[in-house]
């Protein structure tokens, strides 16, 4: 066996010896204006503890009232995932202590979730081409979010090593929907990609439903990734670990892959995988143990006595069904036809999670080819160089559309456009601001260009002689010299005309 010194097994060997099973729990923060059980606002980034009231702070005597918009969003999510909407369900108290949870319990749903069953078809990019995998859904339920702890004084921002902690309850009580898959079998070596592709597809669906911006970097979509290994696809499931709060698509793939190599190492050396939660460390690329789940946690669930059961009216459910967006795969096919992309181009856009970005850029006025060029070129390079998700780059589809418009109207060439995007990404403002501040527009004013043309002719007398003698192709070197002298800002085709004109050669 090729066990690595750390006790990990190489991924390839792990897959020869074991069959992985994954399970994904995704929490999505609903984009409702007010919280789940009170009227407090949900705006992100408000001063700490400025969006709280007796109800979401769990003060004695306060009573919760269910947010209808949250129930509506949960039903639409359940329907979009092809699930059944429960005719009757209840909230339950999940009892545990944590400082960021002011009531000492979380109102959630337990054995009576609002949506049951269903599936999501997930496009997976494999070495042999695109393939669709159906991921079965166990349930989707409503609950409330907890507050946020800020650990101060340590090097890592984690509680370990901190000297004090601060708590912000603004997030406490924001509505969440938790979507839980059935165990996903049959992925083989593709388990990490399937996990990532599932979350990407779910995120796309949630955005199409307009129930949440679902931005992972803002914690609006959080994923716990479960993984177990077994000897063969016929064997019963092995014990699983649950890696918590993995906050980007890339990290999901890396965390699942890491757990495969770690669990395989444990099993191959005769050990037993502990059923536990684990934490993902983005910087080192490893998971470390969290809580043990060996003695099935006892949350003392019981029905929430302060809330009446939910019994969504059938007509309401059917009315909501009619508001569902086009299913994502049909939507993708329609976009591909509208945009005129080849299968390969579309596949790359899908794999990059850029469908929504290209769509929004086109909606902001760019041509589909122009939108694709920037997102799948310069911007995807920037994202991977900085290990960021494409949609977390600090540039908006509107800004990309503006840059492309300036290329099309001749204000910028591609090289200048890249500099403008770089300025936008480094926080220098909108494209127009960057263009003005950096003085980045194409110079096509003859008076400004002629000086450079003369200088180039003087500096390269041999080339100039060739052009005069009729070797028009040689003019490229002179055009290049002018472009260099103007740091790419000259209008290259005008420069060429001026060079030929100066040397008495015909274009
Ligand atoms: P918990 O409360 O422990 O988080 P949940 O039911 O909320 O449990 O979610 C467990 C997730 O793990 C589900 O997605 C489920 O499909 C998945 N799962 C359950 N058993 C296994 C297993 N042996 N291997 C991999 N995934 C599993
Ligand atoms: Mg869970
Ligand atoms: Zn409140």
Q: Outline, from the CA principal axes? A: elongated
Strand content bin: 15-25%
| Assembly context of the chains | single chain
Provide the gyration radius in Å: 28 Å
Counting H and I runs of at least 4 residues, what is the number of helices? Answer: 16
How helical, in percent, are the residues? Answer: 25-40%
If you had to describe this structure to a student in words, what would you say it looks like?
This protein has helices at 11-17, 68-80, 191-209, 249-268, 314-321, 328-339, 343-351, 355-363, 368-385, 397-408, 414-425, 431-438, 446-459, 461-468, 475-485, 492-502, and strands at 19-29, 84-85, 92-95, 105-108, 115-116, 119-126, 129-144, 148-152, 164-168, 175-181, 221-230, 241-246, 276-281, 286-292, 302-303. Helices cover 38% and strands 19% of the residues. The chain has 3 domains: 11-319, no CATH class; 326-438, no CATH class; 446-502, Arc Repressor Mutant, subunit A (Orthogonal Bundle). It is of the alpha+beta class and 507 residues long. The longest helix is centred in the middle third of the chain and has 20 residues, at 249-268. It is built from 16 helices and 15 strands. The model has no long low-confidence stretch (mean pLDDT 92). The structure holds adenosine-5'-diphosphate (ADP), magnesium ion (MG) and zinc ion. Adenosine-5'-diphosphate binds next to strand 1, strand 10 and strand 11.
